Amino acid sequence: MDLCSLTTVRSLLDKYGLAPRKGFGQNFLINASVPERIAACSRGYAPKDRPAGVLEIGPGVGALTQFLAREYDRVVSVEIDRGLIPLLGEALGEYENVEVVEADFMELDLPAFLEERFGDLTASGGTVSVCANLPYYITTPVIMKLVESFPPDRPLPFSSLTVMVQTEVARRLAASAGSADYGSISASLALRCRVEKLFEVGPGNFLPAPKVSSSVVGIVPHGGIREVYPDAPEDLARFSVQVGGLIEAAFGQRRKTLVNALSAKYPKEKTAAALESCGMRTDIRGERLSAADFCRLAAELAD
Ligand code: SAM
Fold first, then answer.
1. Same structural domain for residues 217 and 246?
2. Which of 111, 159, 226, 245 could form a disulfide with 129 if both were Cys (CB 3.0 to 4.6 A apart)?
3. Is there a single domain that holds both residue 218 and residue 234?
4. What's the gap in Å between 1 CA and the centre of ligand 1?
5. pTM for the complete prediction?
6. What is the mean predicted confidence (pLDDT) over 6-21?
7. Is the minimum distance from the CB of 68 to ligand 1 under 6 angstroms?
């Protein structure tokens, strides 16, 4: 079944008495070349010579799932919309390596869920990836959940998060310090991953067409905070909370200088002295600090 043809998507939805639900961010892909390319990019990040599983968030009518099923040994797709579950049973019936789970991704205990669904695969040397055309109303919370559910002293347990998001969000995810798109998500993500912009997808590729353009990004875990800042203290969990607090405060009031933005946490003289020790100007704004700079400043302020 071509799960991306407009006719098939419409007739499947009709058959099950469904229509795209705005509240669940449902924009279904209707051009097969797009999910085929996303699935291939995702698989490209995972080692070829080991068993590979993939977690999909929001299969919809299965447009991306079918290509993931051809690329991966195992696909686990989490869908919140109860109405889509029987439809997916029919649409993906031919793929024995696909399991659809009805759940709200945001409510999952992610480490436990991964262990339950992929534990045997990873125990035998396999890898797990995440791939999704994300519902745009919760893009950032989903990405942060994927990153923050795991301890900061180890690399994230994924080969990659290959996800489609709004182009504007993609720019923010990949932004470097000092650029207009740089924000708390750019800095927080850079502590654990590198982000690659892969390709753009126009609104005409979806049913219904969204108002904005979309982009696919590859978010690839690196070694973690210690890779960004090799001098990080022993207690990485505590340190990452301190760095996260600085990033949050800095971007909570991004037009203020850091000395002022952090004044509820640290006396101004202390922040100014710490900035000087780091070789930074005392009137600098948080938006100019890279993830490594935030780490250096956190270490200095902790002293
Ligand atoms: N993967 C399909 C495609 O590319 O055509 C559908 C993508 S659509 C943009 C987003 C999907 O995520 C929808 O199927 C929606 O119901 C589902 N979704 C929305 N919120 C979710 C949540 N909290 N947990 C799991 N799935 C969710």
1. no
2. 159
3. no
4. 20
5. 0.96
6. 96
7. no
